TrEMBL record:
It comes from Macaca fascicularis (Crab-eating macaque). This is Testis cDNA clone: QtsA-12359, similar to human TPR domain containing STI2 (STI2). Coiled coil: none annotated. Pfam families: ARM_TT21_N. SUPFAM superfamilies: TPR-like.
């Protein structure tokens, strides 16, 4: 994938974080039509399968990509996670995977550390995710996506003082780009601060460049709800951009 496809990965990560795992699989599948055999998209498709409790299918999918350098670390972690969720746990397989994980860590790339950090964050291991992101930033301080991810990890922390620091990482990651995941994080930060006008301005930046990006439209609707702007809320809710698939993303509408 190229850097011009930030909305594709932003959508996958957003749906993963919000636990819309069927949307994760659908978005990854759409991406694979454009980027055939992309290992990162295959990983997230397998992750969506895994989180819907189709464990054996997920294990099979993860095994097929675990030796690709970009996803070797996250795939091996996900395989350990998957095996531990099996009804009959294969201790020997887990032991072999844990040994493999130690070996991979010795020569791992910055990209592999990034996706491992994403995976750890998505399964709720915030502190471990930070370790991997910080290690990655030591290898390559110019990796913008790592700053954005670190911002999201802090933003979703249950420690208020940590969440307040998130904006610094997000700004450092976005810089002068239109990074969709970074902008989504920035909008969420302003929402948490109840600064709805700033949040709306950021969301509008996303919709200008990626008008069909459903999570931004949902966030925009949530902003109008928070401001009690019922007319705008209804307009977005009934608009063509959100129908029909996007309505599943509204609060209380998950299926």
């Amino acid at each position: 994938m190229s850097s011009n496809d930030s909305s594709l990965m932003a959508g996958i990560i957003y749906y993963s974080q919000e636990k819309y795992f069927h949307h994760v699989q659908q978005t990854a599948a759409v991406g694979l039509e454009k980027f055939s055999n992309d290992p990162v998209l295959k990983f997230f498709k397998a992750y969506g399968v895994l989180k819907e409790e189709h464990i054996q299918d997920a294990i099979s999918d993860l095994e097929s990509i675990r030796h690709h350098p970009d996803v070797s670390l996250c795939s091996t972690m996900a395989l350990i996670y998957a095996h531990k969720r099996c009804e009959i746990i294969d201790r020997e397989a887990i032991q072999e995977l844990e040994y493999s994980l130690k070996e991979i860590r010795k020569t791992v790339s910055g990209t592999a550390l990034y996706y491992a950090g994403v995976f750890l964050w998505l399964i709720g291991h915030h502190d471990k995710a930070k370790e991997y992101i910080d290690r990655m930033l030591k290898i390559s301080r110019g990796f913008r996506e790592a700053y954005v991810l670190r911002g999201w990890v802090d933003l979703t922390s249950d420690k208020p003082h940590t969440a307040k620091k998130a904006i610094e990482y997000l700004e450092q990651g976005i810089q002068d780009t239109k990074d969709v995941l970074g902008l989504m994080g920035k909008a969420m930060y302003f929402m948490m601060q109840q600064n709805y006008s700033e949040a709306l301005e950021v969301v509008n930046q996303i919709t200008v460049t990626s008008g069909s990006f459903l999570p931004a439209l949902v966030l925009k609707m949530q902003l109008f709800l928070a401001r009690q702007d019922w007319e705008q809320t209804v307009e977005i809710g009934l608009g063509e951009e959100l129908a029909p698939a996007g309505r599943h993303l509204l609060p209380g509408q998950q299926v």
